[in-house]
Amino acid sequence: MRPTGRLHIGHLFGALHNWLKLQKEHESYFFVADWHALTTDYANTANIKENSLQMVMDWLAAGIDPQKSVLFIQSHVPEHAELHVLLSMITPLSWLERVPTYKEQQEALSNRDLSTYGFLGYPLLQSADILIYKTNFVPVGGDQLPHIEFTREVTRRFNFMYREVFPVPEPQLTQAPKLPGTDGRKMSKSYDNCIYLSDSPETISAKVRTMFTDPARLRRHDPGHPDICPAFSWHKLFTAQAVYEDIHTRCMSAGIGCTDCKKILIDNMIKALAPIYEKRIAWENKRQEVEDILRQGSISAKCIAQATLGEVRDAMGLIV
């Protein structure tokens, strides 16, 4: 993940729950992509360190276990950069220019100067991130599939030109629920409409109480439309199925109002998120231990990365 700071519940259901499953089944590597943060925010780097620590505290609070997985900082393993350079020697420029997100992000971030090689080349750096560990599976959302296919093309080209060093990685698609923010729009820090994993029960309660509901339901006795209600959609994640179905039925017949519906949601959310919040407070008071975990993880990752680079150098005819 890019170090954008505290994580919200969209990250929990969109990525972290899947990571928890993967760390039980596979040798897993999770890293802070601080170099990737520079590809679009190179002019504003003041918060990268603090954002990195805040993000990793959320990982740990959610259950990512440094005894089971390797947690590290991308820039602390410079082998990523070396492999990126070596792969850049064989990657056609046209391959980078045709990556769909290249033009999409230029348009979306038109207020920033993205006419840099770092921005153009970040899919190849992502490929190096993946291949340096001879990765078999990459957990991604659907929007990242073009990047994985790009990596697969680079892998096949390298293996064909030199010798088979890398397995061709497979995407492991993460089905992330579409979770609206408190204002009904997509949950995003830029919209200031998030509920964070580090939010207290009091903060969660306050945010949910003011959350947008069914825009077509103007009065308490009006029948509701739960399927278009931003608040009700959260019940799918936090409320037991039987209760969820009961609320759905009662809402459609005006048997329950938005205030009572939110009260049930608040109770369920606080109960579900309380263990994460409590662990999060504990980690906030153990910052040095968080840094030590990342430092040790970077050493472990570096050992694997160095071995892979030795094979790459040898395959390319360089002195090992």
Report on this structure.
Strand 3, helix 9 and strand 4 form a beta-alpha-beta unit. The protein has 2 domains: 9-179 and 286-315, Rossmann fold (3-Layer(aba) Sandwich); 189-281, Tyrosyl-Transfer RNA Synthetase, CATH 1.10.240.10. It has helices at 9-25, 34-41, 48-62, 79-88, 93-97, 100-108, 117-120, 122-131, 145-161, 201-209, 230-233, 235-238, 241-252, 258-284, 287-315, and strands at residues 28-32, 69-73, 137-140, 170-173. The mean pLDDT is 94. It contains 15 helices and 4 strands. The longest helix is centred in the C-terminal third of the chain and has 29 residues, at 287-315. The protein has 320 residues and is mostly helical. The protein is elongated and about 75 Å long. The two termini are 32 Å apart. A two-stranded parallel ribbon has the order 1-2. Strands 3-4 form a two-stranded parallel ribbon. Helix 3 (48-62) crosses helix 14 (258-284) and helix 10 packs antiparallel against helix 14 (258-284). Helix content is 56%, strand content 6%.
